[in-house]
Amino acid sequence: MIKSLGRCAAAVATAVLAAGGLGAAWQTTARAAAFSAAFTCNIGDLGQTAAVLNGWLTPPGNTYDGPARFWLHISNLNLQAPFPIDSWSGAAWVNVTGTENTTFQVAGSGGAVPEQGALAGDLAGDWAPAVAGTHLLSVGGLEITANSSQAGSVAVQCVPNGTPMAEVLQVAAPYRGQWVRPPAPLFHVGPWYRPGMILQRPVWVRPGGNRPDWNGPGWYHPPVYNRPVGPGGGWYHPGPIHHGGWSRHR
Q: Rounded to the nearest 10 degrees, how much is the dihedral formed by the CA atoms of 12, 14, 20, 24?
């Protein structure tokens, strides 16, 4: 069984929000331009899949008098997990380049995803730029814990293919005050990943097998042999078998 990535949610405690708070805060923030980014995702020890994240990253504005909430909306992440997901939680690393180089996290959770389906939801976290100018924001990695009543708790890690831009932030008035930023843990790419690797498609064997009667009572059916019939009917008995040597015939 794969252990859950509990540190994803714990790293940014202020980013895990109740469903009601998510909707209320989202309505007060203008929607940013949509982006699409390609990822390579590893699903537990089942294998890898190519996934595309479609969504938008929304900053709170271009002037800051303190830490403010950033939103990553995932409208579609075609994870294609080979098992149904009951719920999920996770975090994304947002890399900042340009006039400032840093990383912050957004985190959140979501509901059910059907087998081979696409994940969707909202992640949020607090950050404040300390320098004015152009900030280039990109999603530098994803870690998700998928909870399934059938497959258990499965860790998923997604590595971006390149550096897809999610948002360009023009900061006019950065935050100059004192703020103890919550430390964002480094995004450690697992040993499963190699650039240019050949993906091993995730395979999950449903408990009990893929057939209703597989590995269950009555699943074994011995083969049926067509018995040869001898002259005059009845069971035909072949002649004696000689083990080694040679047969003498008169």
A: -110
Record the pTM. 0.71
Residue type at position 232 = G
pLDDT values of the chain reduced to their tens digit, one per residue, 250 residues? 433 333 333 333 333 333 333 333 333 345 568 999 999 999 999 999 999 999 999 999 999 999 999 999 999 999 999 999 999 999 999 999 999 999 999 999 999 999 999 999 999 999 999 999 999 999 999 999 999 999 999 999 999 999 889 999 999 999 988 877 767 889 999 999 998 899 988 888 777 654 443 333 443 344 444 444 445 544 444 455 444 444 444 4
Residue with tokens 């072949």: 238
> CA-CA distance, 196 to 38, in Å (whole number)?
14
For residues 168 and 134, the answer to whether their CB atoms sit within 8 Å is yes
